[in-house]
Every structure is written in C-alpha cells, then in structure tokens.
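quick one, 209 residues, struct below
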Amino acid sequence: MRDKSSTVELFISPEGYFQELVQQGLSQRKVNTYPHVESYLVRLLQHYLDARNLYDEPYENESGQRSPQTLAEAYLIAQNSEPFVRTEMLRKLGDKTLYISGFFGDSLSRKIVDIDYYAEIGGAAYASLAHCTREDAMIKVYSTFSERFLEFVDVLTYISHQSLIKSDESILRLYERYMRTGSELAKEKLKEMGVLTLPADQVKLGKQG
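---
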C-alpha cells in the first residue's frame, strides 16, 4: 500500500505567497505598518498580475477626440464625478500610481514624467479617498499611503526585484492553468517559485466534489 503522506504536498495559495512577499518587503525596507495595509498590498499585487488592469479605456475629450487620460486629467475628472464614481476612480488612480512607481520606477526615471509626479498624484488620490471614505480602517489605510507613499514604493520595488511577478506567465495564470489541467509543466514552474501545490489527482478529485 502506497504511503499517502509521501504524495501530499503543502498547499500555499497565491495569496499566501504574496503575503510572504509583502511581509518580507516591509521587513527588509524597515517599514512599520499594520495588518490592513499588508492585506491591501497583497490585493494590489494580485490585481496587477493581469497587466490589462494597468491600462484604462481612452476617453472622448471636448473636441470629440478619444485620447488616453493623463494622471492629472484622471484626478480632476474623479474630483468632479458623483461620489461613488469619484471613490472608485480615486482608488484606481492611487493603486495604479503606487504599483507603477514600485515596479517600473527605473523606467520612469528616464522619462519627462518621473516618479515624483506619480507620487504627487497618487498621494493626492489617497488623501482624497481618506476624506470621502466612511470606514475607519480604510481611512487609516488611505491616509497611510498618502503620507508615506514613497516608503511603500520602496517596498514594492524590493518585491519586484525579489520575485517573478513581472514574468510573462504570472503566478496566478500558472496556478489557474494547473488547477484546470493538472499540467506538470505548470506544476514544476510553481514549485520553482516556491508555490507548492496539491498533486494533480487530488486537484481533480477536489473539482469532482
């Protein structure tokens, strides 16, 4: 009879993987914060694994031409929108500028629009969010990002250098592929990244349950 214990591997979800990365980044950059901020950063990393989330739909300007929004334009449009729309736009703007500053800061330094501009817009977006949000925990999160924006840029920069998040085949896509097909190649890549999964036969059994 086969020893089942030899075939069972520890399961660590992508969320758990990112939680470890965030905690490591905060520790290495000596940034003290609290659980709500850590959780927010984990969700941020998961959201932008899909690079399509970095790009906004073009909008139609006053002359009828559709053009990409600049950060400043997006901020002004958000401030003049209805409350629900304003909150959503400000959150997306803050998150996007924080992520781009952390993961692509090196390329920003070679452009006319540099990281200071992103920090200014992102910090302002989070500050506005703190004023129009009623939930105490989120007010504290947004205020923290507004007041210490560049500290968290450093944390994300550290994470980008220590992980494979920017690879063409992201962790989540690999994970979803493995869960759907039991692909051995996807499994091996996940193991190389430190994300251990259940064996394929257990995945299939789980899907049948």
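Strands lie at 59-60, 66-67.
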